[in-house]
Write a structure and sequence with these properties.
This protein is mainly alpha-helical. It folds into three domains: 100 residues, Fumarase C, Chain B, domain 1 (Orthogonal Bundle); 225 residues, Fumarase/aspartase (Central domain) (Fumarase C, Chain A, domain 2, Up-down Bundle), CATH 1.20.200.10; 101 residues, Fumarase/aspartase (C-terminal domain) (Ribonucleotide Reductase Protein R1, domain 1, Orthogonal Bundle), CATH 1.10.40. Helices cover 62% and strands 5% of the residues. It contains 19 helices and six strands. α4 packs across α5. The relative contact order is 0.10. Bound molecules: arginine.
């Protein structure tokens, strides 16, 4: 057991207590951030004359050595230490002796852990953003390739009106674009450096907090030392943003699962992204999409968990807050994994265009357009609605699509119909007529695609 605080104690910590309290098994994840923060702290201490230049150089060399050795596997982070902060400090003292004992001057583990977690989160936000961007790039490519791939658009999971695959993918593009903008907001809001807050009330050393903040690429120092060590808002915000992202991935997964089913056959998931059954030889299961849908619950759980942990904590630091780490680490790893796998699955998925178009035709998705045709020929909309209702009923009985009806059959129900009805209710016309911005019509879609493309270049 290696602790930083034995002086005041006369007895050893109970082994169970030690294990219950220790965080090294998970906070070792941010050893690099811990060392980066310490290097900035020491650089500032030397600038302020609190450490000598020589001590600074010794400490920084020692810290870089630790980082290198952990990375190349020669130094193992073991649970002999209580937490990552103790591990780094103890190893530093082992390496460079007395100068190492000055590292913690003007600092507490409370502001240190607040800093480490922020540095870690900031790095991970960048990684998450890259992954969402990759997904958007795949989506944009599918959109570009499918402005004329007709399919049914659904409401209530009932075929409603014809759209295109580009349009459907474009809906997800918007969702994931908002997810990126949420990440950006969180980054900007959290980007203030807590180091220098001490345990809770700042410190008597003449620290230059602006300088430390600058060294670590923060916008500036945090403005209240109590809040600095007690704030976990940014983690709650990130968990919330990741929950929303997972919700989007989960809805998308649900559609992929449906579309990949025997009944739909709109898509075929690549073999590399499917799994088989141990008993049923014919099966090819969409496990990846199901797992993404399933893992969403885990990320929601982390959000609810941290909100609950934080709700009763008086100012300032309390040990409850150590619970933030496992939750956030797991949620970040889960979300990143899901984003990467989903993107791969989508990129390799085959779209069965003919099947999609047939499905749009068979589902009377052009019924609204048939009614609009009548309206354009002077029939009041309510009457037109009734007439097309009769057409649909007739087709259901005969098991045909509206487009399959003969002219005589059309005219038997309403004499207003002329030859041009076929063109008016063709998939192409139905979609092309919908040309307001945001609609599936090809011209509107091309404009949106250009806009999305410009967005991906600029952000
Ligand atoms: N492992 C602790 C955490 O994650 C570090 C801070 C410890 N501070 C303290 N006063 N015990 O929150």
């Amino acid at each position: 057991m290696a602790q930083l605080w034995g002086g005041r104690f006369t007895k050893e910590t109970d082994k169970l207590v030690y294990n219950f309290n220790a965080s090294i098994s998970f906070d070792k994840k941010f050893y690099e951030q811990d060392i980066r923060g310490s290097i900035a702290h020491v650089t500032m201490l030397a600038k302020q004359g609190i450490l000598t230049e020589e001590e600074k150089v010794q400490i920084i060399d020692g810290l870089n050595g630790i980082c290198r050795d952990v990375e190349n596997g020669t130094l193992e982070i073991t649970d002999k230490y209580e937490d990552i902060h103790s591990f780094v400090e103890a190893n530093l003292i082992d390496r460079i002796g007395d100068a190492g004992k000055k590292l913690h001057t003007g600092r507490s583990r409370n502001d240190q852990v607040a800093l480490d977690m922020k540095l870690y989160t900031r790095d991970e936000i960048v990684e998450l953003d890259k992954l969402v961007k990759k997904l958007l790039e795949v989506l944009l490519q599918i959109m570009k390739d499918n402005t004329e791939t007709f399919m049914p658009g659904f409401t209530h999971l009932q075929k409603a009106q014809p759209i295109t695959l580009a349009h459907h993918m474009g809906a997800y593009f918007e969702m994931f674009k908002r997810d990126r903008s949420r990440l950006k907001d969180i980054y900007a809001r959290m980007n203030y450096c807590p180091l220098g807050a001490g345990a809770l009330a700042g410190t008597t050393y003449p620290l230059d907090r602006d300088y430390t903040a600058e060294l670590l690429d923060f916008t500036g120092p945090t403005l209240n030392s109590m809040d600095s060590v007690a704030d976990r808002d940014y983690l709650i915000e990130l968990l919330s943003a990741m929950s929303t992202m997972m919700m989007h991935l989960s809805r998308f997964s649900e559609e992929v699962i449906l579309w990949n089913s025997n009944e739909y056959q709109f898509v075929e998931i690549d073999d590399a992204y499917s799994t088989g059954s141990s008993i049923m030889p014919q099966k090819k299961n969409p496990d990846i999409a199901e797992l993404v849908r399933g893992k969403t619950g885990r990320v929601y759980g982390a959000l609810m968990s941290l909100l609950t942990t934080m709700k009763g904590i008086p100012l300032a630091y309390n040990k409850d807050m150590q619970e933030d780490k496992e939750l956030v680490f797991d949620a970040i790893d889960t979300t990143k994994g899901c984003l990467a796998l989903f993107t791969g699955m989508l990129r390799t998925m085959k779209f069965n265009k003919a099947r999609m178009e047939t499905s749009a035709k068979n589902g009377f998705t052009n019924a609204t357009d048939a009614a609009d045709y009548l309206v354009n020929h002077g029939v009041p909309f309510r009457d037109a609605h009734g007439i097309v209702g009769q057409l649909v009923l007739y087709c259901i009985e005969k098991n045909i699509a509206l487009d399959d009806m003969s002219m005589e059959e059309f005219r038997a129900i309403s004499p207003v119909f002329e030859e041009d009805i076929y063109d008016a209710i063709s998939m192409k016309t139905c979609v092309e007529m919908r040309n307001t911005i945001g609609a599936p019509g090809e011209d509107a879609m091309e404009k949106v695609i250009a806009q999305e493309e410009a967005y991906l270049i600029s952000e």
